[in-house]
Amino acid sequence: MASSTELTPRSSPNFNASDADLTLLSSDNVKFAVHRYNLAAASQVFSDMIQLGQPHGPTHKQEDVKLEETAEVLEIVLPYTYPAWVKPFELDFPKSFDVIKAFDKYGIWRGIDAITRALQ
Fold first, then answer.
1. What global pTM score does this model have?
2. Which of 17, 52, 56 is nearest to 38 (CA)?
3. How many C-beta neighbours within 10 Å does residue 78 have?
4. Is the pLDDT of residue 111 over 70?
5. What's the pLDDT score for residue 50?
6. Quick one: average pLDDT of 38-58?
7. Could you read off the pLDDT of 3-24 as tens digits, one per residue?
8. Is the Cα dihedral 38, 41, 46, 49 positive or negative?
9. How many CB atoms lie under 10 A from the CB of residue 68?
10. What is the largest CA-CA distance in the chain?
């Protein structure tokens, strides 16, 4: 049986902006407060997910979007959806496989480019 602390989501220390308009929930129950515009601009997959999940009417709030990736993977992937500088990607197998899969799954080309550079 899961403890109550496992069921209560915690927040990412790096993705907790007060002006965020969307919350992503990792597979290990960590909340990521993000900006829809950045996700949609960086990824057609996220753009489609956001459009399909739009609440109906002004009083409805979009529910958290549950993702299959762990918080550890999302902490690496999500910075590539923002326009700020990101530390060069460093390959660290086997964890890098999950990051590469996430970049590919969501079509985050900036992340895929970072992996390509790391392989050179």
1. 0.85
2. 17
3. 24
4. yes
5. 86
6. 83
7. 545 578 899 999 999 999 999 9
8. positive
9. 11
10. 50
Q: What are the structure tokens assigned to 2, written together?
A: 């899961």
The identity of residue 77, as a single letter, is V
Query: Which element (helix H / strand E) includes 6?
Result: helix 4-7
Q: Report the Cα–Cα distance between both ends of the chain, in Å, rounded.
A: 46
C-alpha span between 57 and 46 (Å, rounded): 21
C-alpha dist (Å) from residue 88 to 66, 79, 93, 114, 118? 27, 11, 16, 7, 8
Q: How far apart are CA 16 and CA 61, in angstroms?
A: 18
pLDDT digits (tens, 9 = 90+) for 52-98: 876 555 544 567 899 999 999 999 999 999 999 998 888 888 889 99
Q: How far apart are CA 26 and CA 42, in angstroms?
A: 19
Where do we find the tokens 């956001």? 50
In this structure, what token pair is assigned to residue 36? 């829809």
